[in-house]
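Quick illustration, no need to memorize.
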Amino acid sequence: MATNDGKGGVTEHYAPALAGQEVVSSKPFHGAPEIVDAKDGTNGSEEAVTTVEQIEESKKGRFAYFKTRDFYIVLVLGQILALCLTSTNTFSSLLVSHGTSIPAFQSLFNYILLNLIYTTYTLYRYGFPRWSRLLVKDGWKYLILSFLDVQGNYFTVLAYRYTTILSAQLINFFAIVTVVLVSSIFLRVRYHITQILGILVCIGGVGILIASDHITGASAPQNSISKGNQVKGDLFALLGAACYGLSNVAEEFLVSQRPLYEVVGQLAFWGTLINGAQAGIFDRPSFRSASWTSTVGGYLTGYTLILALFYSLAPLMFRLSSAAFFNVSLLTGNFWGVCIG
């Protein structure tokens, strides 16, 4: 029962309980539950109170990431990239079979297309004054990235002239080793001991493969590759894989700091200049002897479009996962190669 206390307030009175009865109030005897820090207690303990979020996190386990949507996005994206890479290799083989082998000039169209798309959009977003300041301030970073990328493409394609396709493809896996080593040194990525042991096994396997080609002189079709040339081709493949690994780590770092369109645009801008100069120096004889037909034009178009898609999706992979996972995903390209035939 509520009564006026004469001072503008209201005082509540409860009738005395009968014997064996409990007093029941319409109002709760406590407020909302709160999480109180343990150090506020009487014992002065500094222990942290376990929160609901921590309890839920402990229930997920170490494989919880495999149940998330992000994992499946990265997984599907990796397979799309592997399929793109296999497709570009197929178009390159078709071009060679039609008498057109112009490795540097062949990739030039890709950089030009990316330049038209991403550099144009960067200019639209930044304006020419800001874009010019970008070239002056950070241009040297993208110049290094583009140089490594162009050389990775060039030496990998060049390796096929001197060694077998199997040897070149196996040695290209050395890019994973390069990525792991450079990431651990410059990006402070830490790997488990089993992963480090796997890297050492990979390095040993590459050394054994090169030594085997030098000792046995495994022959290419029609015995067109000599023992000395095959070792040269293996070394070109090794150099190309190392360049790929370095460029992947550099791009992973840049896309974590800058917008994706800026990174791809700058890669294409400097890549067009570097690759154009390299094609003019090294591909002139091959350009003159190439077979220029409508079929070859179709293969070049397909190669350029798919490679541009590859370069557009790769930065997303670097941002969602890492350069190491990117290269591991590309290993499934052998499976897609068997499917394409």
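Residues 14-30, 32-50, 218-223 have pLDDT under 50 and may be disordered.
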